[in-house]
TrEMBL record:
GO terms for molecular function: pyrroline-5-carboxylate reductase activity. Pathway: Amino-acid biosynthesis; L-proline biosynthesis; L-proline from L-glutamate 5-semialdehyde: step 1/1. NADPH binds at N62. One of its GO terms (cellular component) is cytoplasm. Pfam families: F420_oxidored, P5CR_dimer. Catalyzes the reduction of 1-pyrroline-5-carboxylate (PCA) to L-proline. It catalyses: L-proline + NADP(+) = (S)-1-pyrroline-5-carboxylate + NADPH + 2 H(+); L-proline + NAD(+) = (S)-1-pyrroline-5-carboxylate + NADH + 2 H(+). Belongs to the pyrroline-5-carboxylate reductase family. It comes from Prochlorococcus marinus (strain SARG / CCMP1375 / SS120). InterPro entries: 6-PGluconate_DH-like_C_sf, NAD(P)-bd_dom_sf, P5C_Rdtase_cat_N, P5CR-like_CS, P5CR_dimer, Pyrroline-COOH_reductase. This is Pyrroline-5-carboxylate reductase. The keyword NADP applies. One of its GO terms (biological process) is L-proline biosynthetic process. Its EC number is 1.5.1.2.
Length: 275
């Protein structure tokens, strides 16, 4: 049976997307054809999913079948893009009724480059993030030339069950990625550090981590629901001569605000360099 969805590269982010698509019933496992980079990854991926979908490694003779799918998610690292392009089968592409859709989630790689590497495809860029695993993700989308309204709807139907979707001009995608795709790692680091602080101040580890997560979640909900500016919330919490203002004073002295600003700028710069 010809598969409807090809996935090239089944690392961490592709697995998040695929897992969520299966859970949302958006694709059935038997409709999916996956290609991985190494032979021993086949077993790892199948074990992880526990659902029977076709996965082969890039050197398998059947790997070429992935080019026979009308929709593909390209999820290798930017450095692996040329290797993928070398295996692209013109023979299959010529047999497809319409130009197939290639959805690239690669950081930084521009539509212009994708279109020149894969001229027989209609290309789209999607910038997802890991909270998609719990349907709380964000995805930035930029459309390549020739994308039809039907293809736009199809791409949205892939990402909407797992994330809020934002259509953006392509030149904003690096900043979007630096904030939302890399963001979970910054917040995880902050979460771990805050829990360490609570342990140092006397709480048991598991309780400290759980309370930290609730505090982050509650704060995000409060800011969003009440449409508060972060500065307003800070002022609501910091009592005169109280605990919070002494902690905030220390954070400012250590340059935490500036470090976070620079972190996002650096991630956006790195994304641009990956192009
Ligand atoms: N991890 C994240 O949170 C996000 C990642 N991205 C982008 O998603 C892409 C994948 O990232 P990760 O999943 O984190 O990386 P990863 O390293 O976990 O996954 C890449 C996978 O591609 C496989 N691969 C290598 N060469 C291949 C080939 N020729 N054919 C098929 N498969 C091949 C590798 O074996 C590996 O499993 C990157 O381009 C990254 O910029 C975008 C947004 C968020
Ligand atoms: O760290 C990375 O390069 C990828 C892209 C954004 C999140 N993870």
């Amino acid at each position: 049976m010809a598969c409807s969805l090809g996935v090239i590269g089944l690392g961490r982010m592709a697995q998040v997307i695929l897992q969520s698509l299966f859970e949302a019933g958006q694709f059935n496992p038997e409709e999916v054809f996956g290609v991985v980079g190494k032979k021993n990854s086949v077993e790892r991926v199948l074990h992880q999913f526990k659902s029977p979908f076709t996965v082969v490694d890039v050197n398998d003779k059947n790997a070429i079948d992935v080019w026979n799918t009308p929709v593909k998610i390209l999820a290798v690292k930017p450095q692996q893009l040329n290797q993928v392009q070398e295996k692209c089968s013109k023979e299959f592409l010529a047999k497809l009724p319409a130009k197939p859709l290639l959805i690239s989630i690669l950081a930084g790689v521009k539509l212009k480059r994708l279109q020149s590497l894969f001229p027989d495809h209609v290309c789209v860029r999607a910038v997802p993030n890991t909270p998609a695993l719990v349907s709380a993700g964000l995805t930035g989308l930029s459309w390549g030339e020739e994308v039809t309204e039907d293809q736009k709807s199809l791409v949205e139907s892939i990402f909407k069950p797992i994330s809020q979707v934002f259509e953006l001009p392509e030149d904003q995608l690096d900043a979007f990625l630096a904030l939302t795709s890399s963001g979970p790692a910054y917040l995880a680091l902050i979460s771990e550090a805050l829990a360490d602080g609570a342990v140092a101040a006397g709480l048991p580890r598991a309780l400290a981590q759980s309370l930290t997560n609730f505090t982050l979640e509650g704060t995000a909900i409060l800011l969003k629901k009440k449409e508060l500016h972060p500065g307003q919330l800070k002022d609501m919490v910091a009592s005169p001569a109280g605990t919070t203002i002494s902690a905030l004073r220390h954070l400012e002295k250590e340059g935490v605000r500036s470090a976070l600003i620079e972190a996002v700028i650096l991630a956006a710069k790195k994304s641009r360099e990956m192009a």
